[in-house]
Amino acid sequence: MFSHGRRLTLQAARHMGSAAKLQGKVAVVTASTDGIGFAIARRLAQDGAKVVISSRKEDNVNKAVETLTKEGLTVTGVPCHVGDADQRKNLLKTAVDKFGGLDILVSNAAVNPSATQVLDTPEKAWDKIFEINVKSAFMLTQEAVPLLEKRGQGNIVYISSIAAYQAMPLLGAYSVSKTALLGLTRAAALQLAASKIRVNCVAPGIIKTKFSQLLWEDDGVNDAILQTTPLGRLGAPEDIAGAVSFLVSDDAAYVTGETLPVAGGYFCKL
Ligand code: NAP
């Protein structure tokens, strides 16, 4: 039995631990100047991590870094188009140069240049979707692993979509690319477990960002989504950020190779 004083000390330690559960960690989040990526970067930094912000446009990077710095968070930023090998290299180098290494990679960037059913996708659009949504996640993983291994452990999270499980009519090729990330999660988790690197994935439902604006701006589509979403609301970027923060923390120390749908019950899995 612990004495009263000892119990209080333990409780305080636990509380402090949860207030800064990612203290000492360094995270890179791609496509993190807006929407879901920005919320993830903010949340990981609030949880104590030092975070490298990035996206294609330098102005967006500067604005995001300024906003989070003003909130007292430890962040830096560098432009990175995830389809560009040199820029990806520079992104990871920034984590090492500015913060001394890498513990967490969140691969969040995606595009959807083709609003068609899957078999109507032009070849160029198919290639672009797979280059950004799948290949860049794979390449970043390959490039990040030596840095994570240097730390003796690490975490990788891919941002997929609920469309990975059930293709959405006008998001055909995009849906297939998101299913591919589920496979990459399992395969990479299997290979990296021995290096104590956990690999997990989050599958957001409809989250209110610019990316999904066409859906939620249309009253008819919005109502249809709400009717099939048991929790009765669209998701917020912070809903995804909370899930990522959990997966990269020690609270999920025994979780790898999994995809966590965060979708208000929309298309919920058995
Ligand atoms: P968003 O609000 O439109 O934000 C997009 C971000 O990506 C911006 O910071 C943008 O900045 C950056 N970006 C775009 N292309 C990039 C590239 N090639 N390389 C690097 N950065 C790039 O999008 P979001 O809704 O947050 O989506 C984020 C992720 O969630 C995506 O993987 C998406 O598939 C997934 N998702 C979203 C929803 C949803 O309903 N919103 C649902 C399921 C899954 P720059 O313009 O400066 O590059």
Report the bound ligands by name, code or SMILES: NADP nicotinamide-adenine-dinucleotide phosphate
For the report, how would you describe the main beta sheet? 7 strands, parallel
Order of strands in the sheet with the most strands?
3-2-1-4-5-6-7
What is the C-alpha radius of gyration, as a whole number of Å? 19 Å
Number of helices: 9
Name of the top-level CATH class:
Alpha Beta
Domain tally? 1
- What is the CATH topology? Rossmann fold
InterPro entries: NAD(P)-bd_dom_sf (IPR036291), Sc_DH/Rdtase_CS (IPR020904), SDR_fam (IPR002347)
Family: Belongs to the short-chain dehydrogenases/reductases (SDR) family.
Keywords: Oxidoreductase
GO molecular function: carbonyl reductase (NADPH) activity
Describe the structure.
- 49% of the residues lie in helices and 12% in strands.
- A 7-stranded parallel sheet has the order 3-2-1-4-5-6-7, with helices on both faces.
- It has helices at 4-19, 35-46, 58-70, 85-99, 123-151, 172-192, 213-217, 219-227, 237-248, and strands at residues 26-29, 50-53, 75-77, 104-107, 154-159, 197-204, 259-262.
- The chain is globular and about 50 Å long.
- The chain is built from 9 helices and 7 strands.
- The relative contact order is 0.13.
- Bound molecules: NADP nicotinamide-adenine-dinucleotide phosphate.
- Residues 30-31, 33-37, 55-57, 60, 80-83, 108-111, 132, 159, 161, 204, 206-207, 209-212 line the site of NADP nicotinamide-adenine-dinucleotide phosphate (NAP).
- Pfam families: adh_short_C2 (PF13561).
- Belongs to the short-chain dehydrogenases/reductases (SDR) family.
- This is Dehydrogenase/reductase SDR family member 4.
- Keywords: Oxidoreductase.
